[in-house]
Design a protein that fits this description.
Helix content: 55-70%
CATH class of the largest domain: Alpha Beta
CATH architecture of the largest domain: 2-Layer Sandwich
CATH topology of the largest domain: Nucleotidyltransferase, domain 5
Number of helices: 7
Strand order of the largest sheet: 3-2-1-4-5
Largest sheet: 5 strands, mixed
Shape: flat
Structural class: alpha/beta
Order of helices and strands: HHEEEHEHEHHH
């Protein structure tokens, strides 16, 4: 903000002034957030983010992607989660179900606050290893393609135009490895897509 005032508005502004503006905005935002009606939220997603190593409890309406909870906390245990969920209940939040990862504090907090509300597992964390695997296999496929191209450039012209039926063993091997690598990444992508919910 200081740079914006200096560079764009050609006006100096003190760090203390910026701090005071932000603090006033936080007070007003909290007042507005405390008055929000959350009764229309039918499905929520809860998670824990980290800002500078500090947990931030997050709640999002799955239909609108509206963020109804964004609370930095010292802990992310069951009691801390339950207190936030009770506060949100006071604002009308009573979802049909929620979605969350396997965080123990988060799950236990929901059981304390909303024992009758189902909490489904998210697919993001389940698919993370598959997504990483697809990335690794994709790199290997590109490396195999590059290796095959290199072998073709080193092979006499007749070989890769199909005129000579006796391909060099190195080029034949490079082509086989390329085909295998491409097929494997295709299989992994297909698995990841089929694992996603409809």
């Amino acid at each position: 903000m200081i740079g914006f005032f200096r560079d764009v508005l050609d006006q100096p502004i003190a760090v203390g002034t910026v701090h005071n503006i932000v603090q006033q905005a936080v007070v007003e935002a909290r007042r507005i957030n405390a008055q929000q009606d959350l009764s229309r939220v039918r499905a929520g997603s809860h998670d824990e983010l980290f800002q500078g190593g500090q947990p931030v409890l997050v709640g999002i309406d799955l239909d609108s992607t509206y963020c109804y909870l964004l609370a930095p906390e010292a802990h992310r245990d069951a009691e801390t989660w339950a207190i936030h969920l009770w506060d949100l209940m006071a604002q009308g939040l009573q979802p049909d179900y929620t979605v969350a990862d396997g965080g123990q504090g988060l799950r236990a907090g929901q059981v304390l606050a909303w024992p009758e509300v189902a909490c489904d597992g998210d697919v993001f964390h389940g698919l993370q290893p598959v997504t990483r695997l697809v990335g690794i296999l994709d790199k290997r496929a590109y490396a195999a393609i590059a290796q095959r191209e290199k072998r073709e450039q080193q092979t006499p012209q007749a070989d890769h135009q199909g005129q000579d039926h006796s391909l060099s063993p190195a080029l034949a091997n490079a082509r086989a490895q390329e085909a295998s690598a491409i097929a494997l990444v295709g299989l992994a992508i297909s698995f990841a897509r089929n694992s996603e919910p409809l």
